[in-house]
Amino acid sequence: MNNDFSSLKTALKDGTDCSSTATFNGVCHCVEKTQPSAFILENVDSMDTSSGEEDDREQTKSNLQMALNYLEGLGYTCCAEKLKTSDYGVPQRRTRYYIFGISNKDKFAVSAKEIIKLIPARLTACMSVNSPIDHFLLKDDDRVVLAELNRRLNAGDRRAQRKASSEPGPSSSGDKWREQHSNLAEQLGVKWPLTPSTQLTQSRWFE
């Protein structure tokens, strides 16, 4: 879904489309056509802000409420929960809204409304300690990792050759900027906040 719903009310009212609503409209179209038994949508936590104009005759609703109303109009019982991904073992500090939708047409052991009521408790049960970052990264010997390492090493070799031959290259301006920045920091007595470990400096990636 899109992170800008400021024009959602107008778009849904008169059928217009714009960049701020294109993704949302696409998601709704997909839900309407495929009719899934359930869905989970994710969006930024700022979608609970108001999207109405001060002179709007209709009661001003938040972007979140408008999205929920529209999805419920497609035949779903919905709820929205604001969650921190880091509370569920994902190594990133993001707060996002997750919209859960259950079809009113499909036959479940309990009603869609009853399922929706259970979601907060189920989410609490799923909370876990953060997993190590290694669980989400590719292995050191993965072909994609090795290909990127070789690309960087080759680029470093080319820069070294240009510097040795005094030939201007695409990175010459960047090198000058880094040198000026380093010299200024030295003059001001600024110390870098991090000192790389021996293990890091011995890594080929550190080059």
From TrEMBL:
Q: Does the keyword Cytoplasm apply?
A: no
**Pfam families, A to Z:** DNA_methylase
- The ranges of region (Disordered) come to 156-180
Question: Which ranges does the record mark as transmembrane?
Answer: none
| GO terms assigned for molecular function | methyltransferase activity
Q: Has UniProt tagged this entry with the keyword Membrane?
A: no
GO terms for biological process, alphabetical: methylation
Give the record's keywords alphabetically: Methyltransferase, S-adenosyl-L-methionine, Transferase
PANTHER family given for it? TRNA (CYTOSINE(38)-C(5))-METHYLTRANSFERASE
Protein's name according to its UniProt entry? Type II methyltransferase M.NgoBI (M.NgoBI) (Cytosine-specific methyltransferase NgoBI) (M.NgoI) (Modification methylase NgoBI)
